Amino acid sequence: MKTVSRLALLLISSVIAFAAQAQYPNKPVRLVVPFAAGSATDTIARVVAQALIERIGQPVIVDPKPGASGQIAAEFVARALPDGYTLFMTTNTSHSANPSMFKKLPYDPIKDFSPILLVGEVPFVLVVNNAVPVKTTAELIAYAKANPGKLSFPYASSTAQVAGETLRVMSGIDAVAVAYKSSPQAATDLISGQTQFYFIDFGTGLPHIKSGRMRALAASAKRTPLLPDLPAMSETLPGFSLTSWNGVLAPAGTPKDIVNRLNADLRAVLARPEVRERLNNIGLEVMGTGTPEEFGGFLQAELAKWAKWVKDAGIQPE
């Protein structure tokens, strides 16, 4: 009798779970972001969320949870119910670099998440405040060598930190890294002269560059149409190439049907020309065409890539 009762309970649970999936989504969806409002990832999330609202007919609430290099947000999502109502718009900081930059994490970047879709890549740009008398990367290197230990660079993400340390190692300059909780605050302090140079994401940096509040020297990877006259870092330091990615994940155990539904919905909104244009204008090179399985393979490959970059930059795990 007890066996029959257990079977009945399992059957009822399965029916309820199936019904919930069939009705998905029937309430607001939370899209967690690991960086502060105004950061590139936050801006990208808001563009995607607005388009997704129109697609799924439910509110999509962007929820920034900055701090600890994305660990706070990543742990929050990893511990959330795997029902499709808590999603994570994240970057290589939490899921590629952190495993090599910290001795212990409160989450597993692979086991604790269900990949949904790789959204795109965001280049970074090397900038200086207007008081620094340089106009090229080579001039910055020469200036730093003439002023050893007097220059500092901020970082609020793994990309900015690894890029700054890579510049330091490859060029042989003596500069001080300064940690920040958010890229907008790091940008504010650069503009005010508290720091001298910064690898800033295009989404945060472009308005300041165009307004003349900071001076751009080079793109971190390849040249970009957003600033067509800006050289790439590799043109001064061969082999230098760093960029950031954005992607959407869910907690591990999220039903496959919901993962596939979200993948299809995200691919549909990212295919819209007006959405792609908005994202391109803030520096995102839109991908948005792969499967969850392809994104999972990408995450595995990025772990190895960032492990090498972190090691080559001379960064010791905290």
Folded structure, characterized:
With 318 residues, this protein is of the alpha/beta class. It has two domains: 28-121 and 243-312, Bordetella uptake gene, domain 1 (D-Maltodextrin-Binding Protein, domain 2), CATH 3.40.190; 123-235, Periplasmic binding protein-like II (D-Maltodextrin-Binding Protein, domain 2). Helices cover 45% and strands 20% of the residues. It is built from eleven helices and ten strands. The strands form two sheets. Strands 1, 2, 3, 4, 7, 8, 9 and 10 form an eight-stranded mixed sheet that branches. The chain has a two-stranded parallel sheet with strand order 5-6. β5, α6 (158-171) and β6 (175-179) form a beta-alpha-beta unit. α2 crosses α9 (256-270). The longest helix is centred in the first third of the chain and has 21 residues, at 2-22. The protein starts with a helix and ends in a 6-residue tail after the last helix. 44% of the residues are buried. The model has no long low-confidence stretch (mean pLDDT 91).
